[in-house]
């Protein structure tokens, strides 16, 4: 295919460019035709699966051929007017064009080089070449410089960098050779280290702008961390240090080995192919892999998907693997360019301190004596990390290089070695940096080979707005969050979690469970079930006791259980708490699961964890822990408990209100309310109920530390009241986190909501609550239709058009979760007015809501409703349940 396209380019050059005439009226048309023919051929190479670097090279050839023709044409036109050329001029390629790496719509950087000043010939050539290029629509960046001017501008890092990639195109070759000599003798003869350090600083500034992680959801393939610019920086460093043209010459000189060369070139080619496809799709200069483009590129590049893994997730896994390779090798090559690199080791000529097992401490870093150190004793690979952890010292570059060269030593014998597993167990048990050591092991590919099951989730991505990090990185972050608790980082903010972490008998069990909790992802089916089976084999192989193995299996299997229960179930249901306690089996397992849940969600991303979730998790943990402390798994006698609560409430309110008034209020409230509400809260609700005006009373209390506000609304019950309240809150940009609905026998309701602003946090602006109350009164009195309020708020914003991966709605109905209610779980894409849509649909279906719980994960919302029919009973008829499900799905999809 490449040969065919080269023939096409040559043919197009002859049929088109050779027809260019001085002052020809068809010159622009001829050039456009040439570019069209050539780009069609290049696109065919790309579509047929051609290598990314091949496409870059082909477009470079196309532009070279064009510029040579235009340069010659300009010379001919000048000679026709002045009869002779009286000045030298050379056309030089710079930047990506100079490296021969032109993506389909990359800009073309050129420099017109002249001896000492711009004469009529140079001026004529510049003008003629540029005018034709611009008229064809090519994005051209140009400069005109003499050799002395190149020396002057080299003091500025950007200009100096552009000179590094110089390449001769056409013109006076002797002038170009003089230019190269000047570059060598005056610009790059000294100060290579200072240039490299400036590029490192430049890279740090770039990462501040584009993100300091490889795992950005919508990465910039050129400027992002692990992007092509990192590779360019490494090559620039090598060019000025070793006077090489490319990575191949670095290999020839022995600065990099065959394996490093092959891996970095493979990553480079992959990135180039993805970028080429991106350019073909958008047909403009763009390097950001947005969600929408990721989906298109995945299909274009032939990804098919497998099981539950989407094509786009396969693409992004390969992207992150390539980005990691580029990031890692770029750092290595730059480090070698800054040091006196030697492949013979440091032991022969540098002073050092001897450590145990043949390791050495050199300049504060752990190293080895010779390059065959690991080959002679493979278990030393794991021991290297243990020694590094013990001494709190980084691993020297020489030891890292030798380790990479010996990765093939990590085989089944290595994994089953007692010496190796003892070292890894010591790393997990250490009081030092467990997460940091595991992170380095992962970076150097040891962790993925030692636990090959974990290697299968390496760079595994989930295509949504919720999971910011790949599965492997998220798992390591979860371990890091647990270590922060151990080190007391959150002692002031999360004292209970810190205390529980200190109380654990074997924190290493929790560390391994956190590391393995998502290991079942990407394999189809429920990942927690698959992961639990995998974790058993891993834990046994490492050498954990059978009890510890079962604890690890339990934690991996149930790592979603506490989160789902806390966010989707009625925590005021005593039977639910008892069942959950039985499921835990022991207080120690409950502690570990509570801490694992915290670490798991905290490690997902900075915006996922919030104090509302924190309060729910703590509430479930505390209530379940009380069951273990009491030592009984039986429900308390309901009447006895209710009588005790009534006495406590009467004791609180006895001095303020007549006993009969208090008792009448208590008798009018449903038993569920009395059993699920503290006496102090009941007394508070009683006071609010007494303030009931026409048509309602609204009480607001802010839980600012927990990031939400609690509101209580008392009014006369009416059909659709809950739906109307949801609509009004939504129209005022207030999100509902949870709701408890209680109807008194007198016909009055006490509805309790936990809410926060759409931006996040408690809603503390009193004017917003005045507006909410005003809207509620208007809606209840029938002055305003709630549909109009919601419709007005739901109109699309010009700022809200950013593409997001779609989430398929789902409705699940269960009659076993609660003894008194049918439970409906709804999964859907979040949007303004969703809760109103759902609640109004439930009303139309004749269902009444007792409890509502809302959980938002990125763009997905999970709404859970505890409902009854008009007779106050569960809904048992299958036909009716099917109708409810279909009505909800239709309402969500139409919305």
Report on the structure:
The chain has 40 helices and 16 strands. The protein folds into 5 domains: 2-189, Beta Polymerase, domain 2, CATH 3.30.460; 202-338, Nucleotidyltransferases  domain 2 (Four Helix Bundle (Hemerythrin (Met), subunit A)); 353-630, cca-adding enzyme, domain 2; 691-788, Alpha-Beta Plaits (2-Layer Sandwich); 796-895, ACT domain (Alpha-Beta Plaits), CATH 3.30.70.260. The model is unreliable at 341-350 (pLDDT under 50). The protein has an 8-stranded antiparallel beta sheet with strand order 9-10-12-11-15-16-14-13, with helices on both faces. It has a 4-stranded mixed beta sheet with strand order 3-2-1-4. Strands 5-6-7-8 form a 4-stranded mixed beta sheet. Helix content is 56%, strand content 11%. With 895 residues, it is of the alpha+beta class.
Tell me the span between the first and last alpha carbons: 50 Å
Question: What count of structural domains?
Answer: 5
Give a quick account of the main beta sheet: strands, pairing sense, barrel closure. Answer: 8 strands, antiparallel
Query: CATH homologous superfamily of the largest domain?
Result: cca-adding enzyme, domain 2
The quaternary state of the protein chains shown equals: single chain
Q: Helix tally?
A: 40
In short:
By secondary structure, the chain is of the alpha+beta class. It has 5 domains: 2-189, Beta Polymerase, domain 2 (2-Layer Sandwich), CATH 3.30.460; 202-338, Nucleotidyltransferases  domain 2 (Four Helix Bundle (Hemerythrin (Met), subunit A)), CATH 1.20.120; 353-630, cca-adding enzyme, domain 2 (Orthogonal Bundle), CATH 1.10.3090; 691-788, ACT domain (Alpha-Beta Plaits, 2-Layer Sandwich); 796-895, Alpha-Beta Plaits (2-Layer Sandwich). Helix 3 crosses helix 5 (120-135).
